[in-house]
Each structure stands twice: as C-alpha cells, then as structure tokens.
Write a structure and sequence with these properties.
The protein has about 200 residues and is α+β, with helices and mostly antiparallel strands. The protein has two domains: about 50 residues, no CATH class; about 150 residues, tt1808, chain A (Alpha-Beta Complex). The protein contains six helices and 13 strands.
C-alpha cells in the first residue's frame, strides 16, 4: 500500500489549499519541517507551495548567485546573506524564500536571539530569484514585485535561458529589463555589490 509521502515525493510541485479557519502559520511550520529538503512557501491566499529540489544546473546557478552575495556581505559587514533555505514572513500571512537575500545587521539584531531559529518576521532588504525551466515567469515577477512593495529596496529576477534580468525597485511597479548584460549593480546600501552574470549565462 503506497503512503501519501511516496505518492507526493516525485511531484515537481505540491499545492496545499488551507481552510480559512485553520491556523495557517502553524500548519505551514509543520509542512516546512516535513519537507525540509524542499523549498516551501506560503502565499497570501493561504496556499502552501512545496517545490521539488532543483536540478544540477539550477542548484549551481542559484548557489553561484548566493555565493557572490555572501562574499560581498562578508567583506561589507553591514548585513548578512541568506540562501533559499531561509523563510521570510514578508507579510503576516505570506512566507517566501528567495534564492538569495540580504538583511541589514540592525534588523537581524532586533530579533531576540532565541527567536532567530524561526522564520524571519519581515521582508528582506534585498532579494534575488533565479528562474528554473519549471518556474512560471509571471509568478516569479509577481513575487519580486511583492518583495519591493513589502519593504525590500530592490529585488532581481534572473532568467538564465533568456539571459535577462528584471530589476524591481521600491516605489515603482515597472522593473528595468536588462538583456545579455555581463553584470548588474545594486543600489542603496548594496551599491557596491556587483553580480557577475558571466557564470550564470554560461551555466554548466
């Protein structure tokens, strides 16, 4: 007799619709624990999205973006970089996990140390999403727009297949669209961060 886990495991994406009367945050926490090896997000509509682990190249590309951001953050020392395993409550009812994110030290320090193992109670200051072939482009665009509406100064959406970067900035609903550029530079507190896109476009 197959178990529920054995049936769900091969799926690329699982979407769980929660009743409006449920304790959404508690159920989300439990589902995230069950699917610790997957990217798990909670939408504003109360849907829990469980995504399959990315392929070899997808893992390399998102890892490379995080590596560059993390190296910059270590040198800059004004904040910390996070990979896609970190969850952020960008609103009280929506939890997202960007492929790479950055948060100012002061905001991290505002969370009592004993609560830092839980999901962050805010939107990151900066977020990057890297599109994989199975990702819906419009969904990622909507997600990046939500980041800047909820507190991020900038959010970048990188599409390796199209060699395109969409740069979303706080205060604007229209992103800058960059095609086949070698690098992209952040602004504000991250203005010295420049992402080298050469390895992203090259892939594996």
């Amino acid at each position: 007799m197959p178990t529920l886990d054995s049936v769900l495991e091969p799926l690329e994406r699982i979407e769980i619709v929660l009743p409006s009367t449920s304790d959404t945050r508690d159920i989300f926490r439990q589902v995230a624990e069950v699917y610790e090896g997957r990217k798990v997000e909670l939408t504003e509509e109360g849907h829990i999205i469980v995504m399959a682990p990315t392929g070899l190249e997808g893992g390399y590309l998102s890892g490379e973006v995080h590596r560059q951001l993390a190296n910059w953050a270590i040198a800059n020392q004004t904040g910390k970089a996070f990979d896609s395993s970190a969850g952020f409550y960008i609103t009280p009812t929506e939890n997202r996990s960007p492929d790479a994110a950055w948060v100012k030290n002061a905001r991290i320090e505002s969370i009592p140390k004993k609560h830092r193992k839980a999901f962050a109670p805010f939107c990151p200051d900066f977020a990057i999403e890297v599109r994989s072939p199975s990702d819906d482009l419009s969904e990622l665009q909507s997600k990046c727009l939500t980041y800047v509406r909820c507190g991020a100064g900038e959010a970048w959406l990188i599409d390796p297949e199209r060699k395109t970067v969409w740069v979303y900035a706080a205060g604007s609903d229209t992103p800058a669209e960059l095609h086949e550029v070698d690098s992209v530079q952040a602004s504000g507190p991250l203005e010295s961060f420049v992402l080298d896109l050469t390895p992203i476009w090259a892939g594996l």
